[in-house]
Amino acid sequence: MAYADSEVRSREVPDKDVRNSGNTVSIKV
């Protein structure tokens, strides 16, 4: 699922926000 997370993070939030919003994105996934 890690690869899917990275994919979604790239399209959901800017690269700089991936680190901060990573948890939020994971929940959305």
Automatic annotation (TrEMBL):
Biased composition range(s): Basic and acidic residues: 1-19
Chain spans, region Disordered: 1-29
Superkingdom assignment: Bacteria
Biased composition annotated in UniProt, kind: Polar residues: 20-29
Protein name, per record: Uncharacterized protein
Organism in which the protein naturally occurs: Pontibacter mucosus
